[in-house]
């Protein structure tokens, strides 16, 4: 009897915690969505400086990558919560239903819809570590030199460049898409050239990236998406409010 009571009590505590945490997360996501409506220019997730071993766990690295986080941003707050609770944390539908305040049937439909949405938009063609290193080194070299032909050789035809300054720092006001436009943008000096600048290869959100210092201070981060040996995405974060987690590594585990 005591074991059953303690088990029931533990189950009740777990359900309570799931409900409270989920509802707080939903409130935060909805507030963030309202903030993004007035955001200046493209909005990018806050970058994390991660340890090299995160990239070795392909599934974990993809789940926290900048590209994947951008896919999740296209979901509604409820869809995001259901998808993460079910597909990442593997919670039962009844627990999720209580957490989001919907019936199990509705949660199953939301999970199916969110899963299909993510599957259709998630990045494909995971690059090997050697391909990733080679592509990042070439990208860094060509960006620093501004060599147009070199950039054309390393960028994918449908490459996308996004820059987030949030109205605080100078940045692109809209995405740039396509190898020609992105290569010309980089060759023309997307990065500041009027100060003492250094670029350091790092791991950002479990993937390749560049940490940019200007006059000894962190000026921004570029998360780089590599597929098939080519750079398919460059996500440049300069908003100072989003750079607090690139000064030291953030632990990321399953």
Automatic annotation (TrEMBL):
> Which GO MF term does the entry hold, naming one?
DNA binding
Q: Which UniProt keywords apply?
A: Sigma factor, Transcription, Transcription regulation
Q: Does the keyword Transcription regulation apply?
A: yes
Protein name stated in the entry: RNA polymerase sigma-70 factor, ECF subfamily
Question: What is this organism's lineage?
Answer: Bacteria, Bacillati, Actinomycetota, Actinomycetes, Streptosporangiales
Q: Which residues form the RNA polymerase sigma factor 70 region 4 type domain?
A: 66-117
Membership in a protein family:
Belongs to the sigma-70 factor family. ECF subfamily.
| Entry's Gene Ontology BP terms | DNA-templated transcription initiation
Q: Which NCBIfam families match?
A: sigma70-ECF
> InterPro entries in the record, alphabetically?
ECF_Sigma-70_Domain (IPR052704), NTF2-like_dom_sf (IPR032710), RNA_pol_sigma-70_dom (IPR014284), RNA_pol_sigma70_r4_t2 (IPR013249), RNA_pol_sigma_r3/r4-like (IPR013324), WH-like_DNA-bd_sf (IPR036388)
Question: Which branch of life, at top level?
Answer: Bacteria
């Amino acid at each position: 009897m005591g074991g059953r009571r303690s088990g029931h009590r533990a189950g009740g505590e777990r359900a309570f915690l799931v409900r409270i945490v989920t509802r707080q997360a939903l409130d935060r996501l909805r507030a963030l969505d309202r903030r993004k409506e007035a955001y200046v220019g493209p909005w990018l997730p806050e970058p994390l400086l991660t340890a090299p071993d995160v990239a070795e766990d392909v599934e974990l690295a993809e789940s926290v990558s900048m590209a994947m986080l951008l896919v999740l941003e296209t979901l509604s707050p409820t869809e995001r919560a259901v998808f993460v609770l079910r597909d990442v944390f593997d919670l039962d539908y009844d627990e999720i239903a209580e957490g989001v305040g919907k019936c199990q049937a509705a949660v199953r439909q939301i999970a199916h819809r969110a899963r299909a949405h993510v599957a259709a938009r998630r990045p494909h063609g995971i690059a090997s570590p050697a391909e990733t290193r080679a592509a990042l080194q070439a990208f860094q070299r060509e960006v620093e030199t501004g060599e147009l032909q070199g950039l054309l050789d390393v960028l994918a035809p449908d490459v996308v460049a996004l820059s987030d300054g949030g109205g605080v720092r100078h940045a692109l006001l809209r995405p740039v898409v396509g190898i020609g436009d992105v290569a010309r943008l980089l060759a023309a000096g997307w990065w500041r050239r009027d100060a003492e600048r250094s670029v350091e290869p790092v791991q950002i959100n479990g993937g390749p990236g560049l940490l940019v210092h200007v006059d000894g201070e962190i000026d921004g981060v570029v998360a780089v998406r590599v597929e098939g040996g080519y750079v398919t995405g460059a996500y440049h974060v300069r908003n100072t409010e989003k750079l607090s987690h690139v000064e030291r590594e953030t632990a990321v585990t399953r």
